[in-house]
Amino acid sequence: MRITSALASAVALIAPAVLAQSQCSQWSPCYREGYCDSSAMFCLWGLCDESKSYNSTSCWKPEGCASQTVTFDSTNDVVPINSYSGNPNANAFLSVFDPNYASVANGNLVLQMKYDASANKGFGATVDASHTFQYGKVTARVKTASVAPGVVSSFIVRNDQTGDEIDFEWVGKVPSQVQTNYYYRDVLDYTKMVAYDVKADTSADYHDYTIEWTENSIVWSVDAQPIRTLQRSSTFNSTGNTYMYPSTMGRIAFSIWDGGNSGAQGTQEWAGYPTPWSASTVYSMYVDSVNIECSGNSSSTPTGPSASESAGASATESGNNSDGGSGGNGGSPTSTPQKCIPRPVY
Ligand SMILES: *[C@@H]1O[C@H](CO)[C@@H](O)[C@H](O)[C@H]1NC(C)=O
Ligand SMILES: *[C@@H]1O[C@H](CO)[C@@H](O)[C@H](O)[C@H]1NC(C)=O
Ligand SMILES: *[C@@H]1O[C@H](CO)[C@@H](O)[C@H](O)[C@H]1NC(C)=O
Ligand SMILES: *[C@@H]1O[C@H](CO)[C@@H](O)[C@H](O)[C@H]1NC(C)=O
To answer: Which residues constitute the signal peptide according to the record (predicted)?
Structure first.
């Protein structure tokens, strides 16, 4: 399950305009969680709530899928979202929490969790892919942070706006286990989780975890062995006449968080508790590489730049793109997400 953002800690830093009316102004056009601003933290597709933003072009357009292997050999592979220029080909992942405990080190993406005395629990890290993903295969080579009860590591595909989500999760309580799960439109249904015994300590060595997502099925694999298949057909809800199957474009994301001190009893029992903490404790999750193969018509059809742009990204966007085969932005220069007009200084 995705822990929703630590925006509250971040807003003080960037001081966005507090939402006064039902809509944001053209100077702070992007709406997110009760605030308006013009930065990536607010305007990024999926984080930005289009229905409450200044107008229908305020939120950045979805970037589309990019077939690529990210090896975390460059510090550019993950940047704090506050310093993101808007060019998804320049930075594969964006760290969305502040303080930022995600970094590149020794060829890995490292997500750390540290003790936050004011909250009396761990403050972790979450990174979102800068490209969107809808249908395809993603494999992450992960060494988990399952070294103590309560520490949760996750590798998911999620759409924050619709609540569709596909998960791998590891709980510190059971270091040899990986859990697979999915959510349809944020419907909380605790019966969908299936655990799998990796037969090894997932925090001791890297393993390959794969999500293969098509319109008709989701296959979760560990070290190339399928461990679970969900057929869309099996998710039919006859009452609602709906397939309760994740079907909206999302972002690949990694996260470490404190389930053991979360305060919710069910979460604590699930993750193990209490999470052991001293002032100097640091828990770390490592991602060695992420291989993404886009499939199908995964691209968005961007409708062009918003009228108000200043765009940090335009010139450097390559026509060629790493957007494999079918997906991506089709190489159109208008597909670059547009930065909004900066807020005026009052
Ligand atoms: C099926 O759909 C109905 C109507 O939308 C909803 O109330 C119900 O909770 C759904 N069932 C499950 C298992 O989610
Ligand atoms: C992909 O394209 C086919 C044919 O154009 C269409 O029927 C299908 O709905 C598309 N799928 C998505 C996810 O857009
Ligand atoms: C959105 O707002 C901009 C000004 O910020 C304006 O130029 C544009 O026409 C608006 N678009 C729509 C669809 O209202
Ligand atoms: C596209 O890719 C080819 C081959 O990799 C390269 O030679 C060319 O310079 C690229 N073009 C652009 C616009 O990046």
So the answer is: 1-20
